[in-house]
Write a structure and sequence with these properties.
Number of helices: 9
CATH superfamily of the domain at 12-171 and 204-234 and 273-290: NAD(P)-binding Rossmann-like Domain
Radius of gyration: 19 Å
Pfam families: RmlD_sub_bind
EC number: 1.1.1.133
Strand order of the largest sheet: 2-1-3-4-5-10
Number of strands: 12
CATH topology of the domain at 12-171 and 204-234 and 273-290: Rossmann fold
Protein name: dTDP-4-dehydrorhamnose reductase
CATH architecture of the domain at 12-171 and 204-234 and 273-290: 3-Layer(aba) Sandwich
Domain RmlD-like substrate binding: 13-302
CATH class of the domain at 12-171 and 204-234 and 273-290: Alpha Beta
Structural class: alpha/beta
Mean pLDDT: 92
Helix content: 25-40%
Distance between the termini: 26 Å
Enzyme class: oxidoreductase
Shape: globular
Low-confidence stretches: 303-318
Largest sheet: 6 strands, parallel
Order of helices and strands: EHEHEHHEHEEHEEEHEEHEH
Length: 318
C-alpha cells in the first residue's frame, strides 16, 4: 500500500513508443483512469530527430512524458551499435531536452542489461546505486540513454529499469515475450523445448510495470527522480519460468528440457545474473512489484480462452 499520495488528476501524459508492449499497456491503463493522454508510436514520432521531439513535446504540452521507445534487438545491436545508440541514447537525450524546455518530467524506461550480470555476481541483487558495467552493445546504449536523460533533466527524470518483460499482444488475444513463446509451444506444438537454466532473473508483467510508471508519474516531481528498479519479486531461471508456463496452461512441464548457456550461442552475451534490488521504492512510499509467480498466474489464468498466438511478435528485451 502506498503511503505517498499519487494522482494523475489534471495531468496530460505523452506516451512515446506507444505501439510496443509496454507503451500500449501504459496508454490503455491511463485511458481507464480517464487521464488526458497522447500516444505516439514510431510512425508518429522519431525520437532520433531532435526537432521532431521538441515539436511533439512543445505541441502537446504534457506534464509527464514516458519513453517506452527502444531498440530491443539485443543481438542485432552487436553489429548495429550506432543505429541502436541513436534510438537508445540520442532519443532519450532529445526527449529530455524537449522536456527541459517545456517544463515536463520524463520517465525513461531502461534495462537490467546496464549491469554485467556475470556468474560471480550471484546472490546479491543489483541495487539502484550499484555501478553499471554493461557487457553488450544493447546495455551500453541503454546506459548512455539513462545518463543523457539524467544529465539534461536532472531534477525531473526518473529512470525505471526493468527486465524479462512480457505482456499482452496488440490483439489482446495472446501473451508476448518469452512467456508468449513458451505458451505458444505448450498449446500449439507437440514437442519438447530446450531452455537455459543458468541465467537468473525476474519476469515482469507489463501491466504491473505500467501501473508503477503511472503511480510514479503522479507523485510530486521533487520526490520521484533518480533510478528505480521495477521487476517482478523473487527470482527464477528461464528454465523454471518455462516449466511454470507449461504447467499453468495445462501442458506437461517435462516437455521443457534444461540446457546451459554454452549450448545456445548468440551474438550478445546474456547476463547470468539479472536480479535487481527494489529499495528505491521505499523512499517514495510505493511497494515493490508483486512476486513474479503471482503475476504470471494471473496473466495466464484465462489461457484456455485466449490461447497463445501461433504467430506472436518477437520477444522484447528491456
Amino acid at each position: 500500500m502506498s503511503t505517498t499520495p499519487s494522482s494523475t488528476a489534471g495531468l496530460r501524459w505523452l506516451v512515446v513508443g506507444a505501439g510496443g508492449t509496454l507503451g500500449r499497456e501504459v496508454t490503455a491503463r491511463l485511458a481507464v483512469q480517464g487521464v488526458d493522454t497522447v500516444a505516439l508510436g514510431r510512425a508518429e514520432l522519431d525520437i532520433t530527430d531532435r526537432r521532431a521531439a521538441e515539436e511533439a513535446v512543445a505541441g502537446h504540452r504534457p506534464q509527464v512524458v514516458v519513453n517506452c521507445a527502444a531498440w530491443t534487438a539485443v543481438d542485432d545491436a552487436e553489429t548495429h551499435e550506432a543505429a541502436a545508440a541513436r534510438i537508445n541514447a540520442d532519443g532519450p537525450r532529445n526527449l529530455a531536452r524537449a522536456c527541459a524546455a517545456s517544463g515536463a518530467r520524463l520517465l525513461q524506461v531502461s534495462t537490467d542489461y546496464v549491469f554485467g550480470g556475470a556468474a560471480t555476481d550471484f546472490g546479491t541483487p543489483y541495487g539502484e546505486l550499484a555501478p553499471p558495467v554493461p557487457y553488450t552493445a544493447y546495455g551500453r546504449t541503454k546506459l548512455a540513454g539513462e545518463r543523457a536523460a539524467l544529465a539534461e533533466l536532472p531534477h525531473a527524470t526518473a529512470v525505471v529499469r526493468t527486465a524479462w518483460l512480457y505482456g499482452r499482444a496488440a490483439t489482446g488475444t495472446a501473451t508476448t515475450g518469452f512467456v508468449g513463446t513458451m505458451a505458444r509451444i505448450a498449446v500449439h506444438e507437440d514437442r519438447t523445448v530446450d531452455v537455459v537454466d543458468d541465467q537468473h532473473g525476474q519476469p515482469t508483467w507489463a501491466p504491473d510495470l505500467a501501473d508503477r510508471l503511472i503511480a510514479l508519474g503522479g507523485l510530486p516531481v521533487d520526490r520521484a527522480t533518480g533510478v528505480f528498479h521495477a521487476t517482478g519479486g523473487g527470482r527464477t531461471t528461464w528454465y523454471a519460468l518455462a516449466r511454470e508456463v507449461f504447467h499453468l496452461v495445462g501442458a506437461d512441464p517435462e516437455r521443457v528440457r534444461r540446457i546451459g548457456s554454452d549450448q545456445l550461442v548468440r551474438a550478445a552475451r546474456r547476463p547470468s545474473w539479472s536480479v535487481l534490488g527494489h529499495d528505491g521504492w521505499a523512499r517514495v512510499g510505493l511497494p515493490p512489484l508483486r512476486h513474479w509467480r503471482t503475476a504470471l498466474t494471473e496473466a495466464l489464468a484465462d489461457a484456455s480462452g485466449r490461447a497463445a498466438d501461433p504467430n506472436p511478435p518477437a520477444a522484447e528485451a528491456r
